[in-house]
Queue: 2 jobs
Job 1
Amino acid sequence: MTAPSPTTAPARWILGLSRVAPGDRIEVWEHRKLRCTGTVSQVAPHLGVLWLLEDRTGIPRLATLRDHRLRRCPLRPAA
């Protein structure tokens, strides 16, 4: 399954981190490629950064508004 293109998908890009909170699910895009998805663990809006636990590996990752495009993940269907 391929990720939707950030230019064609109906995107709700995150422009500021003031409304992002721990527990939110986020996609991290870089150079029009989906880099990772995960759950936000910490947010520092005044620095423009957040930390998330990557879904695939469980490894904490740092994402910045300066270097990445961020958007909320669609909700996962219940299993």
Note: The two ends are 18 Å apart (CA to CA).
Job 2
Amino acid sequence: MQLSRRGWNNVLIFTILAMMLIFQYSGKTIGGGNTTRYYQTALPLNAIVLSMQFDNIQIQRVGSQLATKPELGLSQPQLRQIIKAWETATFKPVAEDVVIANLAYGINISFELANLAEPVTLILYQINSGYLLQNWQSQLLLIDESELQVLLPR
């Protein structure tokens, strides 16, 4: 039996996909189950943000465009960059044994996602060495000033 060129292409594609799956899942088990070493997502995996609201500022999808209320004068590429940054953001988790005081005052950042019925609310805290974000799984994640500049409209 001989395979055509198209047949060999399909074999090659499926081989590469199988290798990608092997690498994807083998990397998660090498750490011995200790997830604090791995970066955590701010929002659920594959989240599609429909709207985002914080401090009386809202960014929402209107058809294929993004709009802000109140109008902030940001271009469509700038708004897309903010939404994409939230959809793909990963941060280093705070070790569970670290106690952080004064987390009483935080900024709520609410997201409506395409794949969830209920909104997801994250809480941003300012601490001495930067910022903490409580993600959708109530994990505390470290954020520095440069990351925050990309995530919030200025």
Note: The two ends are 63 Å apart (CA to CA).
